Every structure is written in C-alpha cells, then in structure tokens.
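Tokens in:
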C-alpha cells in the first residue's frame, strides 16, 4: 500500500516530503488554484520524490442539474487536463447519489453526467473515482456495473456515518477490483455531515483493525490518503502502517 496526505497549498508539500510519504492529494474541495501551478508542483515532486492525486471541488447544490451538466462538467474536464500535466492518474469526486436524500429523477440525470465525466477522463488518460459520502453499498450497484470507466474511492470515515455499522468491508467485498483509492480518517459515527470530523486514526470508534484486515485479504496495494489534520498526519500514518504490518505476519 502507498500512503499519502492531503494538501491545500504549495507550502503543505514540505510536510508530505519530510515524512517520506508516497504522494500528495491536492484537495480542491474548498476551491483554490494550487492545481494550476504545475511548475511549482513538479519541482516539489522531483525534490521530494512523491507523486500527485487530485480531489475535485464540491458539486455545491447536489440537485442543481444545470450547473452540474454545465459549469461543473467543464470544470472537471479542465481538471483532467491539469492532472495530465502532473502525470496524475486519478481524480476523486463527490457526487451525492444517496436515494434517501437525492430524488430519483435527479439521480437519473446525475448518472448520465457522471458517466460522461468518467468517459472523458479516460480519453484524457485519467481515472474518475466516485467517493462514497452517505451512500450504502447497494446505492453504487448500478453505477459501477453500468460504467466500467468509473472507479471507486472508498472513504472509511464516511462509511461510518448515517449507519449503525461501518459499511467499508461490504463495499470492498462487492467491488474489490473497482476500489482504486482509499481515504482514511476516524470519527464517532452519527447521523449527519456535522459528524464527519476527520479525527486522527485511533481517536474515534472505527474498527481499523478489521477494515485493514479486509484490505490485506483482498490484496489491495493502491493508494491511501490519510485525511487528517496535517499536525496529526505523522502519527496517523504510523498507526495505520502498524496495523497493516501486524496483519502481514
């Protein structure tokens, strides 16, 4: 497995490099122009020996189909081109598809938009990965079965929310080959986005031992972003690596 951390500005890259991590995930959830500084990014990558992944901006109103099919679609296409300049193979996206919150008519149109983005990504040499937010494993069934170009980012923390149990292992068992990236962070569970608090590993209720055992058994060897505050990144990486190493014995 390859471990990395999320970054918001060029200055954050020094932390990724000094910890000897494999990659930096450029986080654009709140906007920002970091992705459009390729010379600076490539210089830092060469200096420290890491690579990049990218997290796309928020979709904002998840039911605004005009924006999603227009401005947001074009923004995603632009990001694929920016990713190519960085030799970045993966673009992660939030695209809320939970039937408990998004009406069926909206979901059907969003499905078309999502599939079109995934196919455009492939044409640009990139992989679009849909991240689970509050969705349950069965909510992604038709999306992944109907669009082979679409990958899955499995967010361990999100799988603990809006649920009595963590659904991460179920996601992994259903689509072991479609999981292209992982986000790891802790929380105390809860029924609401306000409980998505991104605690350091071991500071919440998530059973990382059982979850990481499932990853090891599945043969997962791809990337894991520790989505924790940068001042807790080192301890969280150490904790997660310790768990993984204990499972390989």
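Residues out:
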């Amino acid at each position: 497995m390859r471990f990395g951390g999320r970054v918001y500005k060029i200055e954050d890259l020094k932390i990724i490099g000094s910890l000897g991590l494999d990659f930096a995930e450029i986080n654009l959830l709140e906007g920002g122009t970091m992705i459009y500084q390729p010379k600076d990014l490539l210089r830092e990558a060469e200096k420290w020996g890491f690579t990049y992944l990218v997290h796309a901006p928020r979709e904002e109103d998840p039911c605004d189909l005009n924006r999603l099919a227009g401005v947001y679609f074009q923004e995603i296409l632009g990001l694929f081109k920016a990713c190519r300049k960085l030799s970045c193979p993966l673009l992660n996206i939030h695209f809320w598809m939970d039937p408990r919150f998004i009406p069926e008519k909206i979901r059907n149109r969003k499905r078309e938009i999502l599939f079109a983005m995934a196919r455009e990504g492939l044409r640009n040499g990139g992989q679009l990965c849909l991240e689970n937010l509050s969705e349950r494993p069965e909510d992604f069934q038709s999306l992944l079965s109907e669009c082979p170009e679409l990958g899955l980012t499995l967010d361990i923390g999100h799988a603990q929310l809006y649920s009595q149990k963590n659904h991460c292992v179920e996601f992994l068992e259903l689509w072991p080959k479609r999981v292209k990236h992982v986000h790891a962070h802790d929380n105390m569970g809860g029924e609401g986005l306000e409980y998505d608090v991104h605690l350091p590993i071991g500071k919440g209720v998530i059973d990382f031992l059982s979850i990481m055992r499932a990853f090891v058994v599945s043969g997962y060897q791809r990337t894991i972003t520790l989505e924790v505050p940068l001042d807790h990144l080192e301890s969280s990486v150490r904790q997660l690596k310790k768990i993984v190493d204990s499972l390989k014995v």
